[in-house]
Sequence to fold (264 residues):
Amino acid sequence: MKQLKNSKQRTIILEALRLNCNHPTADEIYKMIHNEHPNISLATVYRNLNLLTELGIIKKIPIASSSDRFDATMTEHYHVHCRKCGSVQDFFYEDFSASKAAIEAITDYEVIHQDLVFTGICPQCKNETKEQ
Amino acid sequence: MKQLKNSKQRTIILEALRLNCNHPTADEIYKMIHNEHPNISLATVYRNLNLLTELGIIKKIPIASSSDRFDATMTEHYHVHCRKCGSVQDFFYEDFSASKAAIEAITDYEVIHQDLVFTGICPQCKNETKEQ
DNA sequence: ATATAAAATGATAATAGTTATCAATTTCAA
DNA sequence: TTGAAATTGATAACTATTATCATTTTATAT
Fold:
Protein backbone atom coordinates (compact mmCIF):
# COMPACT_ATOMS: atom_id res chain seq x y z
CA MET A 1 0.00 0.00 0.00
CA LYS A 2 1.20 3.44 -0.97
CA GLN A 3 2.13 5.90 1.79
CA LEU A 4 0.01 9.02 1.41
CA LYS A 5 1.58 12.46 1.64
CA ASN A 6 -0.34 15.65 2.17
CA SER A 7 -0.98 17.89 -0.76
CA LYS A 8 -2.51 21.35 -0.79
CA GLN A 9 -4.35 20.46 -3.96
CA ARG A 10 -6.07 17.49 -2.37
CA THR A 11 -7.25 19.61 0.53
CA ILE A 12 -8.62 22.28 -1.80
CA ILE A 13 -10.43 19.72 -3.94
CA LEU A 14 -12.00 18.00 -0.94
CA GLU A 15 -13.11 21.31 0.55
CA ALA A 16 -14.63 22.38 -2.74
CA LEU A 17 -16.61 19.15 -2.93
CA ARG A 18 -17.77 19.58 0.66
CA LEU A 19 -19.07 23.04 -0.21
CA ASN A 20 -21.07 21.80 -3.19
CA CYS A 21 -23.99 19.56 -2.33
CA ASN A 22 -25.21 19.23 -5.91
CA HIS A 23 -23.10 16.13 -6.63
CA PRO A 24 -20.71 17.85 -9.01
CA THR A 25 -18.73 16.13 -11.74
CA ALA A 26 -14.93 16.26 -11.78
CA ASP A 27 -15.04 19.02 -14.33
CA GLU A 28 -17.47 21.07 -12.26
CA ILE A 29 -15.12 20.88 -9.28
CA TYR A 30 -12.23 21.90 -11.51
CA LYS A 31 -14.20 24.95 -12.60
CA MET A 32 -15.21 25.76 -9.01
CA ILE A 33 -11.62 26.08 -7.89
CA HIS A 34 -10.05 27.36 -11.09
CA ASN A 35 -10.46 31.07 -10.44
CA GLU A 36 -8.76 30.97 -7.09
CA HIS A 37 -6.30 28.20 -8.00
CA PRO A 38 -5.64 28.46 -11.73
CA ASN A 39 -2.58 26.22 -11.48
CA ILE A 40 -4.48 23.13 -10.31
CA SER A 41 -4.90 20.92 -13.34
CA LEU A 42 -7.90 18.83 -14.31
CA ALA A 43 -5.78 15.68 -14.05
CA THR A 44 -5.06 16.47 -10.42
CA VAL A 45 -8.77 16.88 -9.78
CA TYR A 46 -9.52 13.47 -11.29
CA ARG A 47 -6.58 11.86 -9.50
CA ASN A 48 -7.61 13.13 -6.11
CA LEU A 49 -11.30 12.42 -6.50
CA ASN A 50 -10.46 8.84 -7.38
CA LEU A 51 -7.99 8.57 -4.54
CA LEU A 52 -10.47 9.97 -2.03
CA THR A 53 -13.08 7.54 -3.33
CA GLU A 54 -10.73 4.58 -2.85
CA LEU A 55 -9.99 5.79 0.67
CA GLY A 56 -13.71 5.91 1.41
CA ILE A 57 -13.59 9.63 2.17
CA ILE A 58 -16.02 10.53 -0.62
CA LYS A 59 -18.35 8.60 -2.93
CA LYS A 60 -18.55 8.30 -6.67
CA ILE A 61 -22.13 8.22 -7.98
CA PRO A 62 -22.50 6.50 -11.35
CA ILE A 63 -25.20 7.98 -13.53
CA ALA A 64 -26.33 6.29 -16.74
CA SER A 65 -25.32 8.17 -19.89
CA SER A 66 -23.40 10.94 -18.14
CA SER A 67 -20.28 11.75 -16.17
CA ASP A 68 -19.67 10.26 -12.78
CA ARG A 69 -20.61 12.58 -9.95
CA PHE A 70 -19.04 12.91 -6.52
CA ASP A 71 -20.49 13.27 -3.05
CA ALA A 72 -18.73 14.20 0.18
CA THR A 73 -21.78 13.54 2.34
CA MET A 74 -20.95 10.22 3.90
CA THR A 75 -23.90 9.93 6.24
CA GLU A 76 -26.24 7.32 4.85
CA HIS A 77 -28.48 8.56 2.09
CA TYR A 78 -29.61 7.75 -1.45
CA HIS A 79 -30.22 9.51 -4.75
CA VAL A 80 -32.91 10.31 -7.27
CA HIS A 81 -31.77 11.25 -10.76
CA CYS A 82 -33.94 13.19 -13.18
CA ARG A 83 -33.86 11.67 -16.64
CA LYS A 84 -34.86 14.97 -18.21
CA CYS A 85 -32.69 17.65 -16.59
CA GLY A 86 -30.00 15.36 -15.21
CA SER A 87 -30.08 16.72 -11.66
CA VAL A 88 -29.34 14.46 -8.73
CA GLN A 89 -31.00 14.92 -5.38
CA ASP A 90 -30.45 13.30 -2.00
CA PHE A 91 -33.05 11.54 0.04
CA PHE A 92 -33.14 9.33 3.07
CA TYR A 93 -35.43 6.38 3.58
CA GLU A 94 -34.93 4.47 6.77
CA ASP A 95 -36.11 1.15 5.38
CA PHE A 96 -32.88 0.84 3.37
CA SER A 97 -30.68 1.18 6.41
CA ALA A 98 -30.82 -2.45 7.40
CA SER A 99 -30.36 -3.77 3.90
CA LYS A 100 -26.56 -4.06 3.88
CA ALA A 101 -26.50 -7.11 6.14
CA ALA A 102 -29.41 -8.65 4.25
CA ILE A 103 -27.67 -8.21 0.89
CA GLU A 104 -24.48 -9.67 2.27
CA ALA A 105 -26.42 -12.70 3.45
CA ILE A 106 -28.17 -13.12 0.10
CA THR A 107 -25.19 -12.56 -2.18
CA ASP A 108 -22.17 -13.49 -0.04
CA TYR A 109 -20.54 -10.22 -1.15
CA GLU A 110 -18.76 -7.97 1.29
CA VAL A 111 -20.78 -4.81 0.69
CA ILE A 112 -18.73 -1.60 0.71
CA HIS A 113 -21.48 0.81 -0.12
CA GLN A 114 -24.95 1.17 -1.46
CA ASP A 115 -25.50 3.23 -4.58
CA LEU A 116 -29.24 3.37 -4.60
CA VAL A 117 -30.11 5.53 -7.56
CA PHE A 118 -33.73 5.97 -8.50
CA THR A 119 -34.27 7.30 -11.99
CA GLY A 120 -37.30 9.37 -12.81
CA ILE A 121 -38.66 12.81 -13.53
CA CYS A 122 -38.16 15.58 -10.99
CA PRO A 123 -41.05 17.82 -9.83
CA GLN A 124 -39.94 20.77 -12.00
CA CYS A 125 -39.68 18.67 -15.16
CA LYS A 126 -43.03 17.02 -14.44
CA ASN A 127 -44.65 20.47 -14.44
CA GLU A 128 -42.92 21.56 -17.62
CA THR A 129 -44.20 18.47 -19.40
CA LYS A 130 -47.77 19.27 -18.35
CA GLU A 131 -47.56 22.86 -19.50
CA GLN A 132 -46.54 22.01 -23.05
CA MET B 1 -42.90 10.57 -31.22
CA LYS B 2 -41.05 8.66 -33.87
CA GLN B 3 -42.79 5.76 -35.55
CA LEU B 4 -40.73 2.62 -35.06
CA LYS B 5 -40.03 0.26 -37.92
CA ASN B 6 -38.83 -3.28 -37.55
CA SER B 7 -35.22 -4.03 -38.14
CA LYS B 8 -33.49 -7.38 -38.26
CA GLN B 9 -30.54 -5.87 -36.45
CA ARG B 10 -32.64 -4.77 -33.52
CA THR B 11 -34.12 -8.25 -33.14
CA ILE B 12 -30.69 -9.85 -33.24
CA ILE B 13 -29.28 -7.42 -30.66
CA LEU B 14 -32.20 -7.92 -28.28
CA GLU B 15 -32.00 -11.70 -28.61
CA ALA B 16 -28.28 -11.62 -27.94
CA LEU B 17 -28.82 -9.59 -24.78
CA ARG B 18 -31.56 -11.97 -23.65
CA LEU B 19 -29.16 -14.89 -24.04
CA ASN B 20 -26.44 -13.22 -21.94
CA CYS B 21 -27.35 -12.81 -18.30
CA ASN B 22 -23.96 -11.37 -17.33
CA HIS B 23 -25.03 -7.77 -17.94
CA PRO B 24 -22.87 -7.25 -21.02
CA THR B 25 -21.59 -3.92 -22.29
CA ALA B 26 -22.48 -2.67 -25.77
CA ASP B 27 -19.11 -3.82 -27.05
CA GLU B 28 -19.57 -7.29 -25.58
CA ILE B 29 -22.90 -7.63 -27.37
CA TYR B 30 -21.26 -6.44 -30.58
CA LYS B 31 -18.64 -9.16 -30.21
CA MET B 32 -21.27 -11.79 -29.36
CA ILE B 33 -23.08 -11.30 -32.65
CA HIS B 34 -20.15 -10.32 -34.85
CA ASN B 35 -19.20 -13.82 -36.04
CA GLU B 36 -22.67 -14.64 -37.26
CA HIS B 37 -23.54 -11.10 -38.36
CA PRO B 38 -20.29 -9.39 -39.36
CA ASN B 39 -22.15 -6.57 -41.12
CA ILE B 40 -23.87 -5.24 -37.99
CA SER B 41 -21.90 -2.21 -36.89
CA LEU B 42 -21.05 -1.13 -33.37
CA ALA B 43 -23.01 2.09 -33.89
CA THR B 44 -26.14 0.06 -34.60
CA VAL B 45 -25.59 -1.89 -31.39
CA TYR B 46 -25.34 1.32 -29.36
CA ARG B 47 -28.28 2.90 -31.17
CA ASN B 48 -30.57 -0.03 -30.54
CA LEU B 49 -29.54 -0.60 -26.95
CA ASN B 50 -30.33 3.03 -26.23
CA LEU B 51 -33.60 2.86 -28.12
CA LEU B 52 -34.66 -0.31 -26.30
CA THR B 53 -33.75 1.36 -23.02
CA GLU B 54 -35.90 4.39 -23.82
CA LEU B 55 -38.77 2.09 -24.73
CA GLY B 56 -38.42 0.35 -21.37
CA ILE B 57 -37.73 -3.01 -23.02
CA ILE B 58 -34.28 -3.35 -21.45
CA LYS B 59 -32.36 -1.55 -18.72
CA LYS B 60 -29.07 0.29 -18.71
CA ILE B 61 -27.05 -0.31 -15.57
CA PRO B 62 -24.60 2.48 -14.78
CA ILE B 63 -21.41 1.25 -13.12
CA ALA B 64 -18.88 3.68 -11.64
CA SER B 65 -15.62 3.83 -13.59
CA SER B 66 -16.65 1.49 -16.37
CA SER B 67 -18.90 1.07 -19.38
CA ASP B 68 -22.61 1.01 -19.02
CA ARG B 69 -24.03 -2.48 -18.92
CA PHE B 70 -27.36 -3.73 -20.21
CA ASP B 71 -29.94 -6.08 -18.80
CA ALA B 72 -32.92 -7.66 -20.52
CA THR B 73 -34.33 -9.17 -17.33
CA MET B 74 -37.19 -6.83 -16.55
CA THR B 75 -38.64 -8.68 -13.60
CA GLU B 76 -37.81 -6.72 -10.49
CA HIS B 77 -34.31 -7.30 -9.20
CA TYR B 78 -31.18 -5.46 -8.12
CA HIS B 79 -27.41 -5.69 -8.58
CA VAL B 80 -24.20 -6.19 -6.69
CA HIS B 81 -21.01 -5.04 -8.39
CA CYS B 82 -17.57 -6.33 -7.46
CA ARG B 83 -15.08 -3.52 -7.13
CA LYS B 84 -12.18 -5.89 -7.79
CA CYS B 85 -13.19 -8.05 -10.76
CA GLY B 86 -15.96 -5.79 -12.09
CA SER B 87 -18.59 -8.50 -12.33
CA VAL B 88 -22.24 -7.67 -11.81
CA GLN B 89 -24.66 -10.13 -10.27
CA ASP B 90 -28.42 -10.09 -9.79
CA PHE B 91 -30.22 -10.46 -6.54
CA PHE B 92 -33.74 -10.03 -5.28
CA TYR B 93 -34.72 -8.63 -1.90
CA GLU B 94 -38.42 -8.27 -1.33
CA ASP B 95 -38.08 -5.33 1.07
CA PHE B 96 -37.21 -3.05 -1.84
CA SER B 97 -40.36 -3.86 -3.75
CA ALA B 98 -42.57 -1.34 -1.99
CA SER B 99 -40.00 1.42 -2.05
CA LYS B 100 -41.04 3.09 -5.32
CA ALA B 101 -44.19 4.64 -3.85
CA ALA B 102 -42.32 5.67 -0.72
CA ILE B 103 -39.58 7.39 -2.71
CA GLU B 104 -42.15 9.18 -4.83
CA ALA B 105 -43.81 10.45 -1.67
CA ILE B 106 -40.52 11.61 -0.18
CA THR B 107 -39.01 13.23 -3.26
CA ASP B 108 -42.03 14.15 -5.40
CA TYR B 109 -40.27 12.55 -8.35
CA GLU B 110 -42.10 10.31 -10.77
CA VAL B 111 -39.90 7.23 -10.39
CA ILE B 112 -39.26 5.33 -13.61
CA HIS B 113 -36.96 2.69 -12.29
CA GLN B 114 -34.76 1.67 -9.44
CA ASP B 115 -31.08 1.12 -10.08
CA LEU B 116 -30.07 -0.33 -6.78
CA VAL B 117 -26.40 -1.15 -7.17
CA PHE B 118 -24.50 -2.38 -4.16
CA THR B 119 -20.73 -2.14 -4.52
CA GLY B 120 -18.48 -4.58 -2.76
CA ILE B 121 -16.21 -7.58 -3.08
CA CYS B 122 -17.59 -10.78 -4.54
CA PRO B 123 -17.08 -14.17 -2.83
CA GLN B 124 -14.34 -15.24 -5.26
CA CYS B 125 -12.34 -12.03 -4.82
CA LYS B 126 -12.76 -12.22 -1.03
CA ASN B 127 -11.08 -15.63 -1.08
CA GLU B 128 -8.27 -14.50 -3.34
CA THR B 129 -7.49 -11.63 -0.98
CA LYS B 130 -7.25 -14.03 1.97
CA GLU B 131 -4.94 -16.39 0.13
CA GLN B 132 -2.36 -13.74 -0.67
C1' DA C 1 -47.34 -4.34 -57.23
C1' DT C 2 -45.21 0.46 -56.89
C1' DA C 3 -44.10 4.71 -55.27
C1' DT C 4 -43.06 7.28 -51.42
C1' DA C 5 -41.71 8.98 -46.97
C1' DA C 6 -39.81 7.79 -42.75
C1' DA C 7 -36.75 5.00 -40.25
C1' DA C 8 -32.70 2.46 -39.88
C1' DT C 9 -28.19 1.16 -41.28
C1' DG C 10 -22.87 0.87 -41.93
C1' DA C 11 -18.83 3.27 -42.01
C1' DT C 12 -16.43 6.46 -39.97
C1' DA C 13 -15.49 11.06 -37.97
C1' DA C 14 -16.05 13.58 -33.93
C1' DT C 15 -16.68 14.28 -29.17
C1' DA C 16 -16.46 13.68 -24.22
C1' DG C 17 -14.71 11.82 -20.29
C1' DT C 18 -10.99 9.90 -18.19
C1' DT C 19 -6.42 7.96 -17.62
C1' DA C 20 -1.40 7.55 -18.69
C1' DT C 21 3.08 9.62 -19.20
C1' DC C 22 6.91 12.04 -17.53
C1' DA C 23 9.94 15.63 -16.04
C1' DA C 24 9.72 18.76 -12.26
C1' DT C 25 8.25 19.77 -7.62
C1' DT C 26 6.77 18.82 -2.98
C1' DT C 27 6.50 16.16 1.18
C1' DC C 28 8.37 13.99 5.15
C1' DA C 29 11.05 10.64 7.74
C1' DA C 30 15.76 9.64 8.79
C1' DT D 1 19.51 18.63 5.40
C1' DT D 2 19.11 14.94 2.51
C1' DG D 3 16.95 11.51 -0.28
C1' DA D 4 13.26 8.54 -1.52
C1' DA D 5 8.58 8.45 -2.41
C1' DA D 6 4.53 10.86 -3.55
C1' DT D 7 2.41 14.36 -6.11
C1' DT D 8 1.91 17.66 -9.57
C1' DG D 9 0.98 20.22 -14.20
C1' DA D 10 0.85 19.82 -18.89
C1' DT D 11 -0.48 17.25 -22.30
C1' DA D 12 -0.80 13.05 -25.06
C1' DA D 13 -3.36 8.97 -25.39
C1' DC D 14 -7.15 6.21 -24.85
C1' DT D 15 -11.93 4.52 -24.36
C1' DA D 16 -16.64 4.83 -24.68
C1' DT D 17 -20.18 6.85 -26.94
C1' DT D 18 -22.54 9.82 -30.20
C1' DA D 19 -23.05 12.41 -34.60
C1' DT D 20 -22.91 12.56 -39.55
C1' DC D 21 -24.43 11.21 -43.91
C1' DA D 22 -25.11 8.65 -48.05
C1' DT D 23 -27.41 4.34 -48.76
C1' DT D 24 -30.72 0.77 -47.75
C1' DT D 25 -34.81 -1.03 -45.61
C1' DT D 26 -39.48 -0.79 -44.01
C1' DA D 27 -44.28 0.06 -44.19
C1' DT D 28 -48.03 2.67 -45.92
C1' DA D 29 -51.01 4.58 -49.44
C1' DT D 30 -52.06 4.25 -53.96
